[in-house]
Specification:
This protein has about 190 residues and is of the alpha+beta class. It has two domains: about 1-65, no CATH class; about 75-185, Immunoglobulin-like. It contains three helices and eleven strands. The strands form three sheets. Strands 2, 5, 7, 8, 9 and 10 form a six-stranded antiparallel beta sheet that branches. The chain has a three-stranded mixed beta sheet with strand order 6-1-11, with no helix packed on it. The two termini are about 40 Å apart.
Length: about 190
Amino acid sequence: MFGLRKQLLFALGLAVIGLQAAGPAARADRDVSTLDPFKGGGDVNPLVNKADRAAVDCDRERLKAMSRDPRPGRDYTEIYIKNNTTQTVSVAVDVLPFQCVPGNGTVISDPDDAGWRVQAWYNLAPGERAHVANTANGIVYFYAEGKGLKWDGKAVCKDVRDGAKARRLGFFQETFIGMPEEWTMTFNP
């Protein structure tokens, strides 16, 4: 960020020197009412145009960061699962989901007393990747199985529906740091 600021100041300084050298007559004959700051300055001095474009890009990024609309990487992380095996894999995910109601801020759905929700079953073909949830929490629990394959743990145990009956499954925990735009749990053989 500091480097961009330094470049902008340098470019603006050169632009001012160029305008001073051109004299007052060259500056006075420009009709500034037709200039659109988001399309470029239309200035004959390419350094001014470059500085204008950099300032507009910087403004756009600032507006994105201040947006009230939730964004992955700032407000939540998109959680994906990927099957790197040669078998179909069935996956259950235990997640604290992120939901936003416009104008009311963040609302966490509350299917159990702590807000966590088990989402099952995602059947992934070999090589398939799927988006399963959005979360603002850095912890997600997984359980997966396929023909002769099983990924489980003792971090949390939950009853999960499997057809007409419920099964008690042990989930393993995965943690991600920060708020990446997306995070993928990959199931390897």
